[in-house]
């Protein structure tokens, strides 16, 4: 993109725009085609992430009942499950679609009301604009 970028988290419209939280443009009739394409790609990426976590929870059902462990252990537990999943995939132990039967997609907690504009970071708009340009220039995908 011509400028070094940090990692960002994907959020929906209720989160404040920050240089580390990427959120869609507010849906209205004034959006450009580029902004609509950006929103579409952000939604697609978000659905891929949701599907990945659903599959991770289906393969490692200990993640369905993480209330059994301490909060300090939780990041290590999730990381261990990710590593084990990759080991299984690398050794031709594929994901079994039947595992999904016991796992329901869950909505992650998120703010009920949109964040006030005062919480938005003006520099973050530059990050979103760079991503928007990148999506426009990288073609369909």
3D architecture notes:
Residues 5-86 form the DDE Tnp4 domain. This is ALP1 protein. Helices cover 43% and strands 3% of the residues. It has helices at residues 33-59, 74-90, 122-137; strands spanning 9-10, 21-22. The protein contains 3 helices and 2 strands. The model has no long low-confidence stretch (mean pLDDT 82). It is mainly alpha-helical and 141 residues long. Strands 1-2 form a two-stranded parallel ribbon.
Give me the secondary-structure topology.
Elements: E1 9-10, E2 21-22, H1 33-59, H2 74-90, H3 122-137
Parallel strand pairs: 1-2
Spans of at least 5 consecutive residues whose pLDDT stays below 50 are none
Structural class: mainly alpha
- The number of distinct β-strands equals 2
- What is the overall number of helices? 3
Give the radius of gyration. 18 Å
| Beginning-to-end CA distance, first to last residue | 17 Å
Q: How much helical structure, as a percent, in the residues?
A: 40-55%
Reading side by side through the largest sheet, how are the strands ordered? 1-2
Shape: globular
């Amino acid at each position: 993109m011509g400028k070094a970028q940090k990692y960002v988290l994907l959020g929906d419209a209720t989160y404040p725009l920050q240089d580390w939280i990427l959120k869609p443009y507010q849906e209205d009739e004034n959006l450009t085609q580029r902004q609509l394409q950006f929103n579409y790609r952000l939604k697609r990426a978000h659905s891929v992430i949701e599907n990945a976590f659903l599959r991770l929870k289906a393969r490692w059902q200990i993640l369905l009942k993480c209330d059994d462990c301490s909060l300090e252990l939780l990041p290590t537990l999730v990381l261990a499950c990710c590593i084990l999943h990759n080991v299984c995939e690398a050794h031709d132990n594929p994901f079994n679609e039947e595992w999904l039967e016991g796992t329901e997609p869950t909505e992650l907690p998120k703010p009920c009301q949109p964040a006030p504009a005062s919480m938005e970071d003006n520099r973050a708009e530059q990050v979103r604009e760079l991503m928007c340009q990148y999506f426009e220039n990288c073609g369909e995908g």
